[in-house]
């Protein structure tokens, strides 16, 4: 089995004429849930877009499942859930999923759609137009769309944003189940209690990596009582180090 699902070396991304990621190295172990955390604007989405292969002005090496990010061979093997819902509100749940299954070239679309609906627990809503679903249901359709190609790597950009604690807990149970099946999940989040559900944590700040750690080591290394305060401690330390260098 592959040791790392993603290996990044010397990643540099220029957006709006300035480097927003500069010299990033990291790896994502296969079969694990890796949390991508960091303040707003730290580069999480840009990193995820680079992994999926949809980001322009990327230099350095981004290897995904043994291939260069974005190569056509990876299309079905990588599922991407963007921050904003990317499903069609005027189509039903099943129509959306059939469409995404066709894009991914899924050989048995009906079976794949049914499996994705079951995974995200949307049974009973199959024929409902997405525009009439609740916010939480809609984000689960986006997750199902990312899942319908049966990907080995799932890249999920803030999948739980705006969801209530019950839905967040349920979605994290889904993520854990997907990882137990051998899939790799790279999940960004602002919600620090979600950090404790990850196998590994990547902490970004200002386009760089501040920490590559585990939830236990994050707490032990900072002496903080919870993930949120540990995170703030590391961000403050990194900011102070940067000021000392200047
Ligand atoms: N299209 C763009 N043109 C110029 N700058 C951009 C563009 N998209 C993003 N940026 C800048 O790149 C930096 C990283 O943005 P990115 O969206 O990756 O951050 P993020 O960590 O995902 O933030 P958030 O948590 O708020 O979603 C930010 O400073 C942002 O302003």
Automatic annotation (TrEMBL):
The keyword Nucleotide-binding applies. Keywords: ATP-binding, Nucleotide-binding. SMART domains: AAA. Pfam families: ABC_tran (PF00005). GO terms for molecular function: ATP binding; ATP hydrolysis activity. InterPro entries: AAA+_ATPase (IPR003593), ABC_transporter-like_ATP-bd (IPR003439), ABC_transporter-like_CS (IPR017871), P-loop_NTPase (IPR027417). PROSITE patterns: ABC_TRANSPORTER_1, ABC_TRANSPORTER_2. The keyword ATP-binding applies. Residues 1-231 form the ABC transporter domain. PANTHER family: ABC TRANSPORTER G FAMILY MEMBER 20 ISOFORM X1, ATP-BINDING CASSETTE, SUB-FAMILY H, MEMBER 1. This is ABC-2 type transport system ATP-binding protein. It comes from Promicromonospora thailandica.
């Amino acid at each position: 089995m592959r040791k790392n699902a993603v290996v990044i070396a010397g990643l540099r991304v220029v957006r709006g004429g300035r480097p927003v990621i500069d010299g990033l190295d990291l790896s994502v172990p296969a079969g694990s849930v890796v949390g991508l955390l960091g303040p707003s604007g730290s580069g999480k989405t840009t990193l995820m877009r680079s992994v999926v292969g949809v980001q322009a002005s990327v230099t350095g090496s981004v290897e995904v499942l043994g291939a260069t990010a974005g190569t056509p061979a990876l299309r079905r093997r990588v599922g991407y859930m963007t921050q904003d819902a990317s499903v069609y509100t005027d189509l039903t749940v099943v129509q959306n999923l059939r469409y995404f299954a066709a894009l991914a070239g899924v050989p048995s679309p009906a079976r794949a759609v049914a499996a994705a609906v079951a995974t995200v627990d949307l049974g009973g809503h199959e024929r409902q137009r997405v525009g009439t679903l609740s916010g939480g249901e809609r984000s689960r359709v986006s997750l199902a769309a990312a899942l319908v190609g049966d990907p080995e790597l799932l890249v999920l950009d803030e999948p739980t944003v705006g969801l209530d604690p019950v839905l967040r807990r349920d979605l994290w149970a889904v993520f854990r189940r997907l990882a137990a099946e051998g899939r790799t999940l790279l999940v960004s989040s602002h919600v620090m209690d979600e950090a404790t559900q990850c196998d590994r944590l990547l902490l970004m700040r200002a386009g760089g990596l501040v920490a590559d750690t585990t939830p236990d080591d994050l707490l032990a290394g900072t002496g903080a009582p919870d993930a949120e305060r540990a995170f703030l401690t590391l961000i403050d330390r990194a900011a102070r180090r940067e000021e000392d260098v200047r």
